[in-house]
Design goal:
212 residues, mainly alpha, Tetracycline Repressor, domain 2, 2 domains, 77% helix, TetR family transcriptional regulator, HTH_TetR, transcription cis-regulatory region binding
């Protein structure tokens, strides 16, 4: 039973990747609003029903990379030593996730998809609003991870605040990376690590004006 199940899962993953690639290409060429689900299915050479087995709507294609990345990042965070504070552990998890040489080719493909999807997202106000709503689940998952690491209650305010702040910072970092002329994983890590480091060490900005 293991082999057939493995084959089915690989085939499912392949179709999902092809749907994402087809959708992003159409969004880039024609625009998100002008692209239909049927056109995405046709471009991927599958039926509309197959599309909906993977995604409830075309907007879900744009958000899918963030869900995938957050799942992998949370797994890397959970593997960090339990004595590490949350920001220390998160920075190490980012490094492990983005710069793992064994997964370099996969991470480069994921980064390319993430960059393309983020460009579609940030240029469409409707998608940005939808993403704000769908991101709540990912933010709450990060808060629960922080709470476990800190030995806090699942609904602890500090864990929620830390997660919400990190989540916003990572979004700012992603947008900065998308705007950067350097699309490399190294640059992405540098930016995201810098955003969390800023939170870790405080964001106080001294005034330019003197008392005098």
């Amino acid at each position: 039973m293991t082999a057939p199940t493995g084959l089915r899962e690989r085939e499912k993953a392949r179709v999902r990747r092809e749907l994402i690639d087809a959708a992003l290409l159409l969004f880039e060429r024609r625009g998100f609003e002008q692209t239909t689900v049927q056109e995405i299915a046709d471009a991927a050479q599958v039926s509309r029903r197959t599309f909906h087995r993977h995604f409830p709507a075309k907007a879900a294609v744009v958000f899918s990379h963030e869900q995938d990345v957050m799942s992998s990042l949370l797994a890397a965070l959970d593997r960090r030593p339990p004595h590490e504070a949350v920001f220390v552990a998160l920075r190490a998890a980012l490094r492990e996730f983005l710069l793992d040489e064994a997964e370099a080719e996969l991470r480069r493909r994921q980064a390319d998809t993430a960059r393309r999807a983020r460009l579609v997202l940030i240029t469409n106000p409707q998608l940005r609003q939808e993403n704000f709503t769908t991101a709540v689940g990912r933010r709450d998952a990060l808060a629960r991870s922080f709470a476990r690491r800190g030995g806090l209650d699942a609904d602890d305010l500090r864990a929620k605040l830390a997660a919400a702040t990190c989540f916003a910072a990572l979004g700012v970092g992603l947008d900065d990376w998308v705007a950067s002329p350097d699309p490399s994983l190294a640059r992405l890590y540098e930016i995201l690590d810098g955003t969390i480091a800023a939170l870790q060490h405080g964001l106080e900005i001294p005034a330019v004006a003197s008392d005098g």
